[in-house]
């Protein structure tokens, strides 16, 4: 006679060990004990289990496919994936990426600043003024406060 808790512990231990278990009980009695017996379940003979210490013998993919590119074991899918990777990697990224970077707008407006400086130099030369002046503003147009207020 086993109690329900002992029966559960025994079944849990057998499941933990990987043993299939089927419990057959005859019902409960008045003092909460169960008459049960454990019946092992037979495994089919055709089931082959892999042991973690066993190593499967792997063949080199070059034996099956001498033109192996490393994308897939199947030769047809391997060639398709290789072509797709090189198309997107070379054509799209390198060619179109370089063209995109070349035609980006002027970063920090360096080219605009040079064009504007050349335009102003040409304008000052036409007016007969020096290219550079020591005054940022024309001193004749600056209005100063009277000296008495200081």
TrEMBL record:
<comment type="subunit">
    <text>Complex I is composed of 45 different subunits. Interacts with BCAP31.</text>
</comment>
<keyword id="KW-0809">Transit peptide</keyword>
<dbReference type="InterPro" id="IPR019329">
    <property type="entry name" value="NADH_UbQ_OxRdtase_ESSS_su"/>
</dbReference>
<comment type="function">
    <text>Accessory subunit of the mitochondrial membrane respiratory chain NADH dehydrogenase (Complex I), that is believed not to be involved in catalysis. Complex I functions in the transfer of electrons from NADH to the respiratory chain. The immediate electron acceptor for the enzyme is believed to be ubiquinone.</text>
</comment>
<keyword id="KW-0999">Mitochondrion inner membrane</keyword>
<keyword id="KW-0472">Membrane</keyword>
<protein>
    <recommendedName>
        <fullName>NADH dehydrogenase [ubiquinone] 1 beta subcomplex subunit 11, mitochondrial</fullName>
    </recommendedName>
</protein>
<dbReference type="Pfam" id="PF10183">
    <property type="entry name" value="ESSS"/>
</dbReference>
<keyword id="KW-0812">Transmembrane</keyword>
<keyword id="KW-0679">Respiratory chain</keyword>
<keyword id="KW-0813">Transport</keyword>
<keyword id="KW-0249">Electron transport</keyword>
<dbReference type="GO" id="GO:0005743">
    <property type="term" value="C:mitochondrial inner membrane"/>
</dbReference>
<feature type="transmembrane region" description="Helical">
    <location>
        <begin position="84"/>
        <end position="104"/>
    </location>
</feature>
<keyword id="KW-1133">Transmembrane helix</keyword>
<keyword id="KW-0496">Mitochondrion</keyword>
<comment type="similarity">
    <text>Belongs to the complex I NDUFB11 subunit family.</text>
</comment>
